[in-house]
Backbone:
């Protein structure tokens, strides 16, 4: 097999492995979301908040690629579920931050403990250099997916041409 074909085959195997991992992650997340009583996308937004800390709705929209309108709905649902709260900035009362409610988030965290232990065990099998490469890959993968989300939104939200009116002939 030529070097180019071997590389193409390796890249295809990598794509397939990543797709399987991503799909299983979505299924796992949806299972957790169903158990908690929220949607899968709301759970993912909650994870962004958990990773980032207290942020504005606008920042959460930037991180996720969702519209600010969609994020408002997410925040409303997460607040109703007791998982986040809105906090006014004492320096600028117009600014509102979204913060997780740690004691309520803990009830979700327990569902991830087994997976987290498995991932730590997996990561421990890699050298520091390999971990740095994996971190770079994961970071660039997120940036690529965020850009793809923005591209998809522009395709889906693009105004569609209006159908031509049929003329009435007498």
Residues:
């Amino acid at each position: 097999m030529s070097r180019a074909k071997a590389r193409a085959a390796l890249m295809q195997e990598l794509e397939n492995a990543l797709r399987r991992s991503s799909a299983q992650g979505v299924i796992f997340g949806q299972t957790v979301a169903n158990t908690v009583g929220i949607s899968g996308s709301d759970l993912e937004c909650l994870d962004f908040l958990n990773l980032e800390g207290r942020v504005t709705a606008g920042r959460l929209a930037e991180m996720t690629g969702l519209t600010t309108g969609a994020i408002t709905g997410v925040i409303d649902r997460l607040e109703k579920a007791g998982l986040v709260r809105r906090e006014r900035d004492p320096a600028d009362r117009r600014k509102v931050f979204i913060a997780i409610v740690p004691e309520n988030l803990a009830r979700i965290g327990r569902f991830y403990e087994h997976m987290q232990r498995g991932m730590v065990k997996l990561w421990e099998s890699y050298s520091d250099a390999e971990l740095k490469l994996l971190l770079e890959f994961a970071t660039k993968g997120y940036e690529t997916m965020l850009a793809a989300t923005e591209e998809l939104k522009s395709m889906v939200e693009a105004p569609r041409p209006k159908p031509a009116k049929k003329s009435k002939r007498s």
